[in-house]
Write a structure and sequence with these properties.
The protein has 4 helices and 11 strands. By secondary structure, the chain is of the alpha+beta class. The protein folds into 2 domains: 83 residues; 120 residues, endopeptidase domain like (from Nostoc punctiforme) (endopeptidase fold (from Nostoc punctiforme), Alpha-Beta Complex), CATH 3.90.1720. Helix 2 crosses helix 3. The chain is rod-shaped and about 150 Å long.
Length: 266
């Protein structure tokens, strides 16, 4: 046998390598289908063209669910951000409004305080003006304390000089007097012209209480306007008057014959 003689091979023909196969893929009924088909098949191959198909569970549903959850999460996050932004905006507006209201309240309070202070100042000035006018009127209408003291001293001195003289009804001096004649003559010494009779002298001045007598007040007995007797208060709880024809002009304590009232002409 020739060394070059052909010896039939008992090896099976080799299938095409993986690199020579074509890959087909598809999705069917929710499964991923992979098909691998040989590129060439020998004519005498006993086997039919090989079609290798593998089905794998698809991940489409999982991906869709995940995507849906991601979308929901993103939407919720966006909603939360929007809500927070609205809350922050509302809070900022409320804070600005509160600050504005506070500023207005402070401004109003200051205006009210200023108005009250101005009213108080005007009231004080008006009171001071009234007090000043009253003081001026008092100064103009009333004699000075020194002149009043001088007048009462002159008045009392004249009355004391008449003590012991006679009481004569209708007499006006200088050796005898009746009660109203004596008071008229005494006040004439200090420039005051009293009416002639007791009734008129009892209303000639300002009515004063017997608990508030001053030297020089005219005392009267009877009622004001119809008094029947007068005298002059000389201090120390005493008065001088032309009492009657028995006693003449005397100085007596008030409780000797308590008068009814008094008028102030000095």
């Amino acid at each position: 046998m020739s060394p070059n003689a052909l010896i039939p091979s008992h090896r099976k023909p080799r299938r095409p390598s993986a690199s020579s196969r074509a890959l087909r893929a598809g999705v069917t009924g929710g499964f991923l289908t992979l098909a691998v088909t040989g590129a060439t098949v020998p004519a005498n191959a006993a086997e039919k063209p090989v079609s290798e198909t593998q089905e794998m569970p698809t991940i489409t549903t999982a991906l869709a669910t995940s995507a849906t959850k991601s979308a929901d999460t993103a939407e919720q996050v966006a909603f939360n951000y929007e809500r927070q932004a609205l809350q922050d905006s509302a809070f900022s507006k409320a804070a600005k409004a509160a600050e504005k209201d506070k500023a207005e309240a402070v401004k109003k309070a200051k205006a009210e305080a200023k108005k009250k202070a101005e009213e108080a100042r005007k009231a004080k000035e008006a009171a001071q003006a009234r007090a000043s006018r009253s003081s001026e009127r008092s100064t103009l209408s009333a004699p000075s304390s020194s002149s009043a003291t001088g007048s009462t001293a002159t008045l009392v001195s004249f009355l004391k000089a008449q003590l012991g003289k006679a009481y004569v009804l209708g007499a006006t001096g200088s050796s005898a007097y009746d009660c109203s004649g004596l008071t008229q003559a005494a006040f004439k010494q200090v420039g005051i012209d009293l009416p002639r009779v007791s009734q008129d002298q009892s209303t000639a001045g300002k009515q004063v209480g017997l608990d508030n007598l001053q030297v020089g007040d005219v005392l009267y007995w009877g009622s004001a306007g119809s008094a029947y007797h007068v005298g002059v208060y000389v201090g120390g709880g005493k008065f001088i008057g032309a009492q009657n024809s028995s006693t003449g002009i005397v100085e007596r304590p008030l409780d000797y014959d308590m008068p009814t009232g008094a008028v102030r002409v000095l």
